[in-house]
Amino acid sequence: MVGFEMREKTETPVTLIVILAGVPPSFRARDVARPVDRSSMSRFLAAAAGAAALTLTITGCSAGAGSSAGGDGGEARTDIVVAHSAEPVNLDFTTTDGAAIPQALMENVYESLIRIDQNGELQPALATDWTVSDDRLTYTFTLDPEATFSNGDPVTAEDVKFSYERVQSDDWTNALSAKMDVIESIEAPDEGTVEITLDHPSNTWLFNLASLVGAVFHPDEVGDLANTAVGSGPYEVEEFTRGQQIVFTKRDDYAGATPGTLDTVTFRYFDDAVAASNALKSGQVDVIGNLQTPELTPEFEADDTKQVEVGTTNGEVVLSMNNADGIFADQTAREAVLYGIDEQAVLDTAWGGYGTLIGGMVPPTDPYYEDLTDVWPHDVDKAKELVQEAGIEGEEFRFTVPNRPYAQASAEIVAAQLEAIGLKPTIETQEFPAVWLEETMTAHDYDMSVINHVEARDLLTVFGEDYYTGYDASRIEDIAADADVGTEEEYTEGMKEVARTITEDAGAGFLFLFPNLIVADAAVTGLPVNAVSDSFQIYDLAWS
């Protein structure tokens, strides 16, 4: 396969670069020991062929070409290009669901009062400190007096009040806005102090505040959020080209932590995962934010000019089933599916063995994690028995899958496993994010799907009332409410019960916890190895 990329016209003489990528050793010893079906081998050969494709790139002066550290005596570069897969459809996460927009904008352009660090701990952001009343109802935040928006205006308590009251209004349609429902009142006693009172004590609210619902907006700059972003973060959006890239430029007047030496950071979006990998090899990009071709990892690890970082995420790869309508409204049918799925085979074959089996909707970094992989052990005979009991043998159903590599690969293996127990899934590929978000998530027009839910502590959102899973939220609402107002120990035990109830109800299948595979030029430092917040943080990126 030969690919051509035409860069925009430049006065710089063009250079013809020819790259021949070798075929990586994608199967490790444990994969050889595990039988591989025909469809799995086909996918492997296709991926290997793609990786070995002859790629011709006609380019002028590539933004990411060459080693950047200036170790040869030249000037150090002040720009970095980061490759991502899922692109934002716009810049407005207040009305658009999905992870791509906050991944780009949170902590980079917009800030909350607090943030989540790489260890999953809460840290100051716009607020320099905060206190909690003895009754756990009132939170008092002290704002950074030097904080300003990118338009030069200071960040005041009234801006925070405006932003958080807006989350509770009809202007916010993102489903995550429910995280702020617990707020009873917001006061701004002076420009530098915000007092937020809850209607009941909440163990979850402060952590939720560090997510996108805590973003602080300028009251005069919310008229066109889809195309403009005015925040208080270390960078501002210089250019947004839908389907291609976002260019961030450093704010010299940023009041927070020094954003390193980078004047410009570009997020470049690739629909094709092999193309992103080849772009890193050829120097067109400097970082792959999350490698979508895990079979290439050994090749990158063997390359002294590259570095591979394997971190963790909040991303549960969920095999969602429509609990409210269609074939999987019957719990027996859902149980048949869960007995029929071999999650280890899915992980090994679809994602190269990278990732973690968890069995539920809680990652190990959360305080209420419990290993639930033993609830639905792989049992083909039991699955076939339940298919017969549910009366669904040979019944066709729609398996709507976003066009992301992990989802496509996982769906093919899952479909083969379900066919083996007598079911007939029909895979329908949907463009992500636009089509999948509209038809599957919003319209609930699906039977089965697979998606990586990356938001932190999103258990009660994904299985909440009216969400696309169609789960009967009344099964967990009281347990969750009691846990939220209880002691720290009661919270932990209560949320464990919530997670176990969802798993035991066969509310969905939990294929694996998505790994964070970052590949970069060996000279890049400050990589956000763990994806445990909404953001791909860029302010620590630098060249060594």
Briefly say what this structure is:
This protein has helices at residues 29-33, 38-51, 100-105, 157-167, 205-209, 273-281, 297-301, 331-340, 343-351, 380-390, 405-419, 434-442, 459-462, 477-485, 488-504, and strands at 15-20, 54-59, 79-84, 114-116, 122-124, 127-132, 138-143, 183-190, 193-198, 235-241, 245-250, 264-269, 287-288, 306-311, 316-321, 396-402, 424-430, 448-453, 508-513, 516-521, 524-525, 542-543. By secondary structure, the chain is α+β, with helices and mostly antiparallel strands.
Q: What features would you describe in this structure?
A:
- The chain is an alpha+beta fold and 544 residues long.
- Helices cover 26% and strands 22% of the residues.
- It is built from 15 helices and 22 strands.
- The strands form six sheets. A seven-stranded mixed β-sheet has the order 10-11-12-3-13-20-14. A five-stranded mixed β-sheet has the order 17-16-18-15-19.
- Helix 8 runs antiparallel to helix 10, helix 9 crosses helix 11 and helix 14 packs antiparallel against helix 15.
